[in-house]
Write a structure and sequence with these properties.
Distance between the termini: 33 Å
Number of strands: 18
Keywords: Cytoplasm, GTPase activation
Strand order of the largest sheet: 1-2-3-4-5-6-7-18-17-16-8-9-10-15
GO molecular function: GTPase activator activity
Radius of gyration: 46 Å
Structural class: alpha+beta
Protein name: Rab3 GTPase-activating protein catalytic subunit
Subcellular location: Cytoplasm
Largest sheet: 14 strands, mixed
Strand content: 5-15%
Family: Belongs to the Rab3-GAP catalytic subunit family.
Length: 947
């Protein structure tokens, strides 16, 4: 190394003398050129010493275009210019460059190299515009690499940046050297070079030094080709969606735009919105493996061959993750509903949000848009449209749906919630207007006794649902009972005069046949008959006309009291009454009154407040118990309290010996009389003094169920329900709407057909459990600001699942006959998308990274892919001339890549002169990479020479 030393002294003369003695010139690096070579050599030696593993640890940059490609960079200076030298290397070897299905760097494909150097000026253009400068840079790198004993190829970008041109050099040892050159034609490509025949002759011209016609000679050339096709975009205005199963070409595509269908018209969410197809299209790579070509005529035949003759097909799905722009779907509207919930705590009644006069947030409310009355009317008509039958509420219901306290998807309230999130922009004011009009319509159905649409009018109240659904179900039942009472009253009044004579005549016939007196209570018996269960109407009559039972036929030991038995559903096995030794009859009884969740809670609170839980519980059930006792007395006129206990509560009757009271007993009546009465007694709790049950028994009149007051008063309960709906607090309404809207939206998506993809099924299951956990505070009416934040995060989770489900449904439809492809594409995209869902490590998240996948297509799957390339219309095929050939259903390749190569044996050729024995083998002497279309052509040539 050059060095100079300088000694500082106080005297000028001594300083000058010392400088003359100690200063010397270092002539080992006499020029800046040599110093530049030395710097390049030092950097290359360091990279060689480190190796790929250490370079990665030192911060090598990964290239997104290639899986295994990395680079390191070093800055160098030569004279007044700065250069950047980059070393590209692979961590894992990915096979030959001719394996088109692998991902390689651009220069790797062009020149057939694996690792290489690129040196370029640190300028705006990044290229060397001066040819002597480029040659000088290559010479410097070649000398430095030779000094390092490195065989790395080196490249320098030259000419204009748009030409993507390079020159390069590589030392293959002590004998051979490879030189590289690449250039590009960006427009006006010669017609000859658009076809395989002309490209073949271009390559042959590089080594065939003959003035004769090249097309008439035979030159054995290695050839491999890769053609890339692209489907027409699915959102093109001239394209109609073609299903994967449709193997015929679509015709008449230029019809009326009103008849065009969207890709998701048959998907369950299409009723509410049209989703953008996440699959934007497909790329297809057809590869012809390496083969030997001998003439341009053979190349012309290859150009006319179909892509189906290619050895390998590789599919490239073009999938958009929807991150650009605002995506409209259930998730976006649910987030607006959550914001409406946040505002709902600011008012006491829904009407306050409509008027916006005294509301603190009136300024915000004025800016909220309410749809026009015509839109409101259309929504209400669609919402309250009466169907032919009650929908199946279990349709689309997930196994975990009931963990969410909402409402079934097809019911009235769930449909109201789904309409609400799309009504206007789902603001609190629009929701208030829709709710008020909705309740007004519900009241009309009640006042007119019209069946409530989309609600079951029978069965028990489903307490696993939200309270509004329970109230609407109760209201639907009340409407039906109200209608029945009105119809019965009209029928009875209208037929009273006409049927009185017939009833009296019928009574006389019965009296003559039995010799018994029957009270004149025909009207009551008729109502009882109408209200009894189907198939058992006759048992409610005083004396059944078509019943041959012994107790009803006037036997010698019958009593007159037995003949006025009413409301009986039949004898209870062989059980007998304790005092009269007559058969015990089971009465028709009223059903237990239906109660909603808040009614049950009210009763439980009353029980908790009471000191004597049993007595007070019995008091709460007094109406039911009294009705059962009255019906039992009417069916068994001679019964006592003990008889009722034996039938109603057998556990409170203690037998001293076997009585044979089970319905299956076959003991004769005479045998029972011999041992009568049976030995038994009431239990301790029933025999206590002042027992409430006995008091109720003593006060209960003997009335059949037809004469009893209904336990459920439909008029009273209906009005209470409407009062609840009209005075419901806004936050209580919005809490139930949020729960129901999330559940209904998820159930709608759950109906989509996606081919049973395991990852998608797992994500849907997780979504329901996440919703159940996040919505639980709303179900308990404990919503806080933290709950609102949890709901906002839930909307993000819902959006991720909705995106994945849309993709899964789209892939399933397109690959209906090739499910392996849809499963492979979705699985790869799922792994790519996981970090964006917050389920991957932060290092894996790369927002800029696009989804890239290459999937090899099997032979039996090619037809499915071919069907996706529908015939272009006249507008889409505007360029019919200058076609490159190899058409696929009328589509020419958007990119054609060809590699020509010529190999030569060193032994026996001009390369053999003074060639060491180690090189006595076949080497690649010429290689040409061609890439382009009819408007763009890039050619890269590498030549091996003997120096």
């Amino acid at each position: 190394m050059a060095s100079t030393s300088k000694v500082v002294s106080s005297g000028d003369e001594e300083s000058e003398e010392e400088e003359e003695l100690e200063h010397f010139d270092d002539f080992t690096l006499a020029s800046s050129w040599e110093r530049f070579i030395s710097e390049v050599e030092a950097v290359c030696r360091q990279w060689l010493a480190d190796g790929p593993k250490n370079l990665l640890e030192k911060g090598a940059v990964h290239l997104g275009s290639s899986k295994n490609m990395y680079k390191v960079k070093s800055e160098l200076k030569y004279l007044l210019k700065s250069y950047g030298m980059e070393y590209y290397f692979e961590v894992n070897k990915s096979g030959k460059v001719t394996d088109w299905d692998s991902i390689f760097h651009d220069l790797q494909l062009c020149f057939g190299v694996k690792e290489f150097l690129v040196i370029a000026p640190q300028s705006a253009s990044g290229v060397v515009l001066d040819a002597p400068e480029a040659s000088k840079l290559l010479s410097a790198i070649a000398i430095a690499l030779s000094n390092c004993s490195s065989l790395w190829p080196a490249f320098v970008p030259v000419h204009d940046p748009s030409r993507n041109a390079y020159i390069g050099i590589q030392n293959l040892g002590t004998v051979f050297t490879r030189r590289f050159e690449a250039d590009r034609i960006c427009s006006q490509v010669p017609v000859k070079l658009m076809h395989l025949e002309g490209l073949y002759e271009l390559f042959v011209s590089k080594f065939a030094y003959s003035t004769l016609d090249i097309s008439m000679h035979i030159f054995k050339v290695r050839f491999t080709m890769k053609l890339t096709y692209q489907t027409l975009p699915y959102d093109d205005d001239d394209i109609r969606e073609v299903d994967a199963e449709n193997i015929e070409s679509s015709e008449d595509r230029g019809g009326n735009s009103n008849n065009k269908t969207q890709w998701d018209d048959d998907c369950p969410w299409s009723e509410w919105y049209s989703a953008e197809d996440p699959v934007k299209g497909f790329g297809l790579i057809a590869i012809w493996s390496e083969k030997m070509v001998e003439s341009s005529l053979e190349m012309a035949e290859l150009e006319n061959s179909s892509p189906h003759e290619a050895e390998k097909w590789i599919l490239l799905p073009n999938i958009s993750d929807g991150s650009k722009g605002n995506r409209i779907g259930f998730a976006s509207q649910l987030s607006l509903l959550v914001e409406a919930l946040d505002m709902s705590f600011e008012a006491q009644f829904m009407e306050d949000f409509v008027s916006a006069v005294e509301n603190p947030s009136s300024d915000n409310l004025k800016s909220m848009v309410i749809p026009s009355p015509t839109v409101l009317d259309r929504v209400l008509k669609d919402l309250l449209l009466q169907g032919v039958k009650i929908p199946d509420f279990s349709k689309g219901e997930h196994k975990s749906s009931r963990y969410i306290k909402g409402a079934p998807l097809e019911c009235l309230f769930a449909q109201f919630c789904l309409h609400s999130i799309w009504f206007g922009n789902c603001n609190i004011r629009a929701i208030a207007v829709l709710w008020i009009e909705f309740v007004r319509e519900i009241r009309w159905y009640w006042e007119e006794s019209q069946s409530l649409p989309k609600m079951p009018s029978n069965g028990s109240i489903d307490l696993s649902t939200c309270l509004i659904y329970q109230k609407l179900q109760m209201l639907a039942i009340c409407i039906e009972k109200k209608r029945e009472l009105n119809e019965d009253f009209q029928d009875c009044v209208g037929s009273n005069d006409q049927s009185s004579a017939a009833i009296k005549e019928d009574d006389r016939v019965v009296e003559e046949s039995t010799g018994l007196q029957i009270p004149d209570d025909n009207f009551d018996r008729k109502r009882d008959s109408l209200l009894t269960a189907e198939g058992l109407h006759e048992s409610g009559m005083a004396i059944p006309r078509h019943n041959g039972k012994p107790e009803n036929t006037g036997s010698t030991d019958q009593k007159p009291s037995e003949c006025i038995r009413r409301g009986s559903s039949g004898a209870v096995g062989s059980m007998m009454l304790l005092k009269s030794c007559q058969s015990m009859h089971a009465p028709f009884t009223q059903e237990s009154p239906l109660m909603t969740e808040d009614m049950h809670e009210e009763r439980l609170r009353a029980i908790e407040v009471s000191s004597g839980s049993f007595d007070f519980s019995a008091q709460l059930e007094r109406d039911i118990l009294s009705a059962d006792m009255s019906a039992f007395k009417a069916a068994n006129p001679d019964a006592v309290f003990e008889d009722f206990i034996r039938w109603h509560s057998p556990g409170d009757w203690e037998n001293d010996e076997s009585e044979g009271s089970s319905p299956s007993g076959n003991l004769a009546v005479d045998g029972l009389k011999d041992n009568w009465p049976p030995r038994g007694r009431l239990s301790q709790r029933m025999s206590e003094h002042g027992n409430l049950w006995r008091k109720i028994w003593n006060n209960a009149p003997a009335l059949p169920v037809s004469e009893q007051k209904p336990l459920l008063d439909p008029n009273r309960e209906g009005e209470k329900i409407l009062h609840y709906l009209e005075t419901l607090r806004p936050h209580q309404l919005l809490e139930q709407m949020v729960c129901t809207a999330f559940r209904a939206s998820a159930d709608t998506l759950n109906q989509a057909s996606f081919g049973g993809l395991k990852q998608m099924t797992m994500k849907i299951d997780q979504l329901y459990l996440t919703m159940a956990s996040s919505l639980r505070p709303l179900q308990a009416n404990t919503g806080t600001s933290e709950t609102i934040e949890d709901l906002r995060r839930l909307c993000v989770v819902f959006e991720h699942v909705e995106k994945l489900l849309t993709l899964a449904a789209s892939l399933h439809r397109k690959f209906l006959h090739a499910p392996r492809l849809s499963e492979a594409i979705f699985s790869d995209y799922y792994n790519y998308y996981l970090p964006k869902m917050g389920m991957g490590s932060p290092e894996e998240v790369d927002v800029q990274k696009e989804f890239e996948m290459k999937l090899q297509v099997r032979n039996h799957e090619r037809q499915v892919i071919s069907n996706m390339f529908t015939l272009p219309t006249a507008n889409q095929s505007w360029r019919k001339v200058l076609s490159m050939g190899n058409l696929l259903n009328g589509h020419e390749p958007i990119l054609r890549e060809i590699i020509f190569s010529m190999n030569d044996h060193v032994n026996g050729s001009h390369y053999a002169t003074h060639t060491p024995s180690v090189h006595q083998k076949e080497i690649e002497t010429y290689r040409m990479y061609i890439c382009g279309t009819s408007n763009d052509l890039r050619v890269a040539l590498s030549v091996t020479s003997f120096d």
